[in-house]
Amino acid sequence: MAIPNISTKYIFGVKSAVVNNIAFHDEQTLLYPAGSYIILYNVDQKQQRFILGSEKGHGITAQAVSANRRLLAVAEKGEKPIITIFDLNTLRKRKTLNCFEVQSQECVSVAFSHDSKLLITQCGHPDWTLVLWQWEKARVLGTIKTSKPESTTPVHHVSFNPADNSHIAVVGDFIFKQYRFVDGHLKQVQQAKSSELQNFTAMHWGQEERILLGTNTGKVMLFDEGELKTDYQIIKPDKQLKKDDSKHLQTLMESEQSISQPDVSKVTSIVTYSKGTRIACSCGQGTVHLFERGTDIKTFFKKTKEIKVPEQTSGGEATEDEETILCLALSPSEETLVASTDHNQIYSITLSSADLGKEKEAVWFEMASQLFHSNIISGLDVCIRKPWFATCSTDKAIHIWNFETWLVRLHVRRTEVKS
User: Fold this and answer.
1) Highest averaged pLDDT of the listed ranges 245-254, 316-325, 368-377
2) 350-387 pLDDT, tens per residue?
């Protein structure tokens, strides 16, 4: 008797706990993780294609798409971090990179150079090692520790200078460092002043030497050639540090103890578009703030609009918990902005529609695919006579899905759902 061949047909959901977990492959295709898969979802045809992670991997931790949108780097946790490079046209594996030089079991951030020839991987606790790769030859060009070993100040993001493959920036909790690959070695060339260091939670490298950094206190800071030029407070923190707390803050910085991140005001993602003249920042629960770049440094940030995630409702009742946007991505034409959230949802908006309406009137995202569960699925049952199956979750929601059309037929939210 022949063994039946089982293959994946459709995956409902998205994994939010992955750095840079949403991207565009082309104008119609979104790319995001779910379980051990990377999904390529065509928003027009409502169809999916799949890339399966490594057999030795213990979960995807970060991903990156090359500037030409032909390559995908997937970082997975393991005995040592595993980075796999895929061709997005054929969906075939191009190269596997093994970080034997590090002590960590995972990569917290990964990025391609602008010409896609180099790759940087930032490994995590305990050694916080940055690795520069010539990935096609699986060759390590250089390594350097970006935070002190066993440090409690983590690194969050790494990025290449789009105009210079040898120039790299690293940000984290009270960390903003720049490195260059010179004479076969990675060397630190710049570090922000101690008075300028904050808990940096987002980074975008714009045109020339300008870097936009977001903080956990709702601030966006503009650095030009390593110098702080201006900043903009998007949202005022709920609790401002008093003057008496300044000594306490300094003690925390010196002892490398990071301040807890207030999710309400944290800047989580920054993108620019229209040749760098417009900026989109996700900050605050379920909100993206749009800016136009001013004519000089003093008026660099000119806020124009807010885009908000809609409240998910069922039977007229809004959900109790608000969503936080984790990652933003722009389509190749810069017509569409998508956002992923901590509730495992994906939203989108056409930016031309965001410019409509009154100047200070908020506009709203729409679902990019459909409503997913936002937490653990605790029960499942299949209908005998219909192509339906039902799921319930600890998010207190019941979904009924159609496994022929791959759509959710019904979404009901209750005070408590166990099975």
Assistant:
1) 368-377
2) 988 766 655 667 789 998 888 888 888 888 999 899 88
Sheet holding 155-161, edge to edge: 155-161, 164-172, 175-182, 185-191
Query: Which among 264, 166, 272 has a CA at the least distance from the CA of 210?
Result: 272
Q: Are 155 and 164 in contact (CB under 8 A)?
A: no
Q: Are 301 and 279 in contact (CB under 8 A)?
A: yes
| pLDDT for residue 326 is more than 90 | yes
Grouping H, G, I as helix, E, B as strand and the rest as coil, residue 251 is: helix
Token output for 359? 């100047």
Q: How confident is the model at residue 299 (pLDDT cuts 50, 70, 90)?
A: confident
Cβ atoms within 10 Å, residue 359: 8
Longest alpha-carbon distance in the chain: 77
Residue 2: which pLDDT band, with cuts at 50, 70 and 90? Answer: low
User: What's the chain's length in residues?
Assistant: 419
Predicted local distance difference test score (pLDDT) of residue 108 = 92
In the structure encoding, which two tokens stand for residue 141, read together? 């060009």
Tokens representing 386 are: 């219909």
Residue indicated by tokens 């936080």: 324
Instruction: Give the Cα separation of 373 and 141 in Å (integer).
Output: 42
- Tell me how crowded residue 299 is: count the other CB atoms within 10 A of its CB: 11
Q: Using omega within 30 degrees of 0 as the cis cutoff, is the peptide bond preceding 237 cis?
A: no
| Identity of residue 278 | R
Contact 227, 213 (CB under 8 A): no
The DSSP code sequence of 21-89 is --EESSSSEEEEEETTEEEEEETTTTEEEEEE--TT-S-EEEEEE-TTS-EEEEEE-SSS-EEEEEETT
Contact 8, 406 (CB under 8 A): no
Tokens of 204: 């975008």
The rounded percent of the chain whose pLDDT value lies above 90 is 44
CA-based nearest residue to 184, from 215, 140, 214: 140
Among 11-20, 260-269, 336-345, the range scoring the smallest mean pLDDT is: 260-269
At 314, list the tokens.
């069922």
Tokens 């010409």, residue?
115
pLDDT at 355: 65
Across the range 78-100, mean pLDDT stands at 92
CA-to-CA distance for 207 and 163, rounded, in angstroms? 8
